[in-house]
Amino acid sequence: MRAAARWSAAGRGVVPLVALSRAAKEAPARGLALLVLVVTLAGAVFGGLVSGTLLEGRRAAAAWQVGADASFLGAGRDPAMAERLARARGVRETVAVRQLRVDPLSGTDGGRYGVSSLVGVDAGALRDAGAGSAAARALADAGLDGGGEGGDIRVLASDGRAGELLTFTRHGKEQRIRIVGALPDDVARDPALGPVRRATGARQHLLLADSGDLEGFAASDFEETALLLFGDRPDTCPLYTSDAADE
Q1: 3-class secondary-structure state, position 158
Q2: What is the pLDDT of residues 58-106, one digit of tens each?
Q3: E strands of the chain, at which residues?
Q4: pTM of the prediction?
Q5: Three-class SS state of 203
Q6: Could you say which DSSP state residue 75 is in?
Q7: CA 133, 134, 135, 140: dihedral to nearest 10 degrees?
């Protein structure tokens, strides 16, 4: 038993070491009981760690689905409801996130860049909401918050080089995208983008722009729009109750 204790001391786990060391000092029967007890406790600790990991995973998944304290997916299709939610009790800030599916071509050689999600968000509003958004921070650091002046759509891209031009056609009109810089890795995991990104399948590339650069697009052009609601327990239940009564 003492030899086993010395062997366990060379390992990383503290539970076997404590069990075997104590068992070596006690009577064989008591040592066996101690081993059973410590192994049981080890299982309980391991189970607690697994439970905690699963809980954190569920929290992360929920944050990705909602993106804020609450959110309204499909805000572009029901602007009246979006406006009412923005005025709901407890709502402090609102931020619209919109996504376009684009399949642009290289402005240099005409080759395909790849199907991409072009996501627009009001970087200033998202920053003011205090969400600690990686997307808002990246746009601000690149000087893209606030939008442009109706020219090229300026983006941070998951693939491509700064200064590269891309083009795509919308309603018979050519649109130009200019890559300003690389998209930081943590932006792709930003919960603020989750509601619109999870609504579609995986894409080859992610392009991020300030909403100001997408003002020329109609609400119907976006494949998905979400209104993020920030505040202290936003109370949207009365709105849905009222809607049900109206029906």
Answers
A1: coil
A2: 455 555 566 678 888 888 888 888 888 888 888 888 999 999 999 999 9
A3: 70-73, 89-102, 105-106, 116-121, 153-157, 165-170, 173-182, 205-210, 224-235
A4: 0.70
A5: coil
A6: G
A7: 90
